[in-house]
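Human:
Focus on the backbone:
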Amino acid sequence: MSNSAPTSEPPAQSGRLSYGPQGSVPESQNPFATWISRALTILIDGLVAAAMFLVFLIPSILFFVYSVQFYEDEFGELKFVVTNLGLFLAGVAVLIVGFLVNLGFVFWNNIYRVAKTGASIGKKVMGIAVVRQDNGQFLSVGMSFLRYLMYVLLTSVCFINYFWPLIDGQRRAWHDMVVETYVVKR
């Protein structure tokens, strides 16, 4: 006969968070992330992505500025002519590479990192993580991709997705409900 009292909490696994059976998350032990922490996460992740894109945007703008000449036509409209095609195409190439690098970063940060660590850069800074509702584990890459896709689609279609955690008892947005996840404080 064991002296230890039985617990409803499953044991924590290495590198994973544990939240109780069937996804129940006791508020006192593992509170759900607040709306403000989720909003700040979006801001932080957006600023990091924007800063990364600026690294490519600024040189491409300089290439464009130095490869064209502006003039007014006979109707007073501002027009331009490309005076250095090589420099202009270099600006286009830098802009395309910047877009692709930024797109890769967004996928790495919002899908791969969330799957492997439970948190994007912004979520890590804010001390929150995304976990599965059924077992408190991190998401697979496929589920993380589906969650991000639902986030983009639902937020694009209806801005209220951003504010739904304010009225939901488990502070979940619609995309969390679709893929059955929680966003919790670490």
Q: What stands out?
A: Residues 35-185 form one domain. The chain is about 55% helix and 10% strand.
